[in-house]
Amino acid sequence: MASLTDITAAAYINLVSILTFLLAFAFLRLQPINDRVYFPKWYLKGTRGSPKGSGVLVGKFVNLDVKTYLKFWTWMPEALRMPEMELIQHAGLDSVAYIRIYLLGLKIFVPIAALAFAVLVPVNWTGGTLDGMKDLTYSDVDRLSISNVPAGSIRLLAHVLMAYVVTFWTCYVLYREYENVTKKRLQFIASEGRRPEQFTVLVRNIPRSFDESVSEEVEHFFRVNHPETYLLHQIVYDTKNLAKLVEEKKRLKNWLTYYEMRFERNQKKRPKTKTGLWGLFGKSVDAIDYYRAELEDISNEEAAERDKLMRDPKCIVPAAFVSFRSRWGASVCAQTQQTSNPIRWLTEWSTEPRDVFWDNLAIPYIKLSVRRLIMAVSTFFLTFFFMIPIAFVQSLASIDGIQKVFPFLTPLIKMEAIKAIVQGFLPGLALKIFMAILPTILNSMSRIEGHTSCSALDRRTAAKYYLFILVNVFFGSIITGAAFQQLHKFLNQAPSEIPKTIGVSIPMKATFFITYTMVDGWAGIAAEIIRLVPLIVFHLKNTFLVKTEEDRQQAMDPGCVNFATTEPRIQLYFLLGLVYSVITPLILPFIIVFFAFSYTIHRHQIINVYNQKYESGAKFWPDVNRRVLTGLMLSQILLMGLLSTKKAAISTPLLLALLIATIWFHKFCKGRFESAFVKFPLQEAMKKDTVDRAIEPNMNLRAYLEDAFIHPALKGIDMKNPPPIAEDDNNSVVSTKRKSRRPS
After folding, report:
1. Coil, strand or helix: which one is 317?
2. How would you label 579-611 residue by residue, b for 16+ Cβ within 10 Å and e otherwise?
3. How far apart are CA 580 and CA 587, in angstroms?
4. 49 has pLDDT over 80
5. Residue 32 phi/psi, 5° resolution?
6. Highest mean pLDDT among 188-192, 310-314, 607-611
7. Where is this region: Disordered (predicted)?
8. Residues 6 or more apart whose Cβ sits within 8 Å of residue 276
9. Which of 371, 353, 561 is nearest to 451 (CA)?
10. How far apart are CA 100 and CA 570, in angstroms?
11. 76 Cβ partners below 8 Å, 6+ apart?
12. Quick one: three-class SS letters along 690-703?
């Protein structure tokens, strides 16, 4: 059991490792050779060029200006200096809302920590219960926790009152922050210029007709039902094969450009390549002629595939992007039911073009429901039975396991060096590998569910990952045994006993979570800023693979805020802070350091490094609010269970009332704010439309929207859709009688 001395030693070691990471970062970021690794966002924006070194050759790689090293610490104030509105313009609202999660943690836990250390720590320290138990091993940390308070003591009332303070303060901060982010979202949408997704609706589950093509069906339906506002539509093609050909063509063009540049530099000798694997094997040929021929072949294949898309009706999926003359018209369509059949002509707001997940647009409604049911069941079993495959692999990573499965390796693993590796290294490696591939597994499950945008995929993956962390990291660390053993134990006891079972174990795990916070939170965030893997990969690519300036741009790999995996991890620290703020307040300073340090680091990364793949306008904030409240409710339930073991019967109705109040607050926030994240007010839509008409009365909206939602593989390709009807005719009466195309 760790003591205060042990925790101090662990903190010292982690602080030294953090300082090492920061000093290494301060040195590496100043070197010209690393500039594209630590400032890629500015390169992508076109506002930064390669730094010019001094005249000497070494100056191109190493910064020889001694004065810059004396200001190595300036990156921290620079990261905090940029105003929030400027940061939104620079990086987007998603990025700003993400770092506000860390700010939310500071707003909640700094006042709570001050009050807890002023009130609860003296109450716990002077409890005297542990001093009277001669046969019990305990540490100074336990004396600072509720474990040191006698059962049935009036002192426990202080913990109940503290639970009320924590709840009301957390709810107040959450309300203010929810209100703030909601206002920023509405301001962000209002201040945005004209964007294609503001006028466009995604329509799915379009019924097939023998009389009309999908394109004709869509046009007919919207001309009849939205005659005043409908403008145009873009049907969706199954472009999987074409996309592969386009990527291959891009690769071949890159190689051709590289060899042509080499030949321009030295025209005395034409470059050669080999036709086999990786250009290292096979027959040696003229590189320029070879790649020109390959490019011509792939272009012919692309043309054939494109012709197939235009001629084969099976290549058209029952989905379309329908654009309207105004935001108001799009709002009405996106937020209403189109027919008496609620599973036909399903409409929803379109995301921005780069956020569309094209592969899922063709999934029918019934299949969608079945997929989501299967994935819900799979998520449950993955969460509670995750330790089974890990235990199986770890059993193979043992001496007995290897001898049983691979008996011919017995002489080898009996060697002392090999035996030491198998026993001391492989089991931990197996766990690391499974934990590393977990986000990929969860993301694949979210894809199967059929979500149509990358942002929705990330939010669903985050929900699954949060459940996994809650069960396997939090509860799994509190209660010994694998998750499925815990599940079996819970199913075989009364529901009222479950909070007691967990509550009794919580104080004993405080030291574990303190060290976990330092290792995973402090040192993990410090390792983020050094970008060791992108640094190594960039230099390897730059040395061996970069052939053109486009290659160098792609080698930078700025990355982005990975909401699907980072937000659930942040929520773990909210949960720990809320649970232990009343039980063992000693953990709070460590959590505060995590939030403050993470806020600074991620602000720097968002300004200089990350390049977001999409912009959803902080659509994830309702999930953030809901998970923090989930942590708050769990803390109340667990405290209720713990106090029931300390003969504080009066605490149960008081904490139950607090739990009910928290649930009511969640419902109130959901009704008050959540609609702003899923709907667009007609009033705001009309305002923006009116302003647009006043500023640009002759705007050709059709030309602006007609190619906005075309699959990237089809960009620049004329798909030969039926010619659009002139805009002057759009308000004319549309015949509802269809001409049959069936053979007579």
Report:
1. strand
2. bbbbbbbbbbbbbbbbbebbbbbbbbbbbbbbb
3. 7
4. no
5. -55, -30
6. 607-611
7. 720-744
8. 282, 283
9. 371
10. 12
11. 600, 604
12. HHHHHHCCCCCHHH
With 0-12 CB in 10 A as exposed, 13-18 as middle and 19+ as buried, what is 45?
A: exposed
Band (595; pLDDT cuts 50, 70, 90): very high
Mean confidence (pLDDT) of the chain: 82
Please answer whether residues 326 and 684 qualify as being in contact, where contact means their C-beta atoms are separated by less than 8 angstroms: no
**What's the whole-number mean pLDDT along residues 56-60?**
61
**Alpha-carbon distance 470 to 465, whole Å?**
8
- Mean pLDDT of the 353-375 span: 88
- The tokens of 498 are what? 């479950």
**pLDDT digit string (tens) for 278-296?**
666 777 888 888 888 888 8
pLDDT for 729 equals: 43
Q: How confident is the model at residue 728 (pLDDT cuts 50, 70, 90)?
A: very low
Beta bridge partners of residue 164, listed in sequence order: none
DSSP letter (8 states) at residue 211? S
Q: Which two tokens stand for residue 407?
A: 């008996």
> Could you tell me the residue ranges of all domains in the chain?
4-195+452-679, 209-351+687-714, 365-449
The model's pLDDT over 542-581, given as tens digits with 9 standing for 90+, comes to 877 676 677 777 778 788 888 999 999 999 999 999 999 9
Identify which of 680, 521, 659 has the alpha carbon closest to the alpha carbon of residue 588: 521
Residue 227 per-residue DSSP state: T
**C-beta atoms surrounding 471 within 10 Å:** 17
658-664: long-range contacts at Cβ-Cβ below 8 A with a sequence spacing of 24 or more?
A: 658/163, 658/164, 658/167, 659/633, 661/167, 662/167, 662/171, 662/629, 662/632, 662/633, 662/636, 663/633
Rounded Cα gap, residues 446 and 442, in angstroms: 6
- CA–CA separation, 99 vs 91, rounded Å? 11
- Kindly tell me if the per-residue pLDDT of 221 is higher than 90: yes
Measured in degrees and rounded to the nearest 5, phi and psi for residue 688 equal -65, -40
Q: What pLDDT score does 724 carry?
A: 42
User: Could you tell me the two tokens for 344?
Assistant: 């036909």
Token pair of 188 as six digits: 């962000």
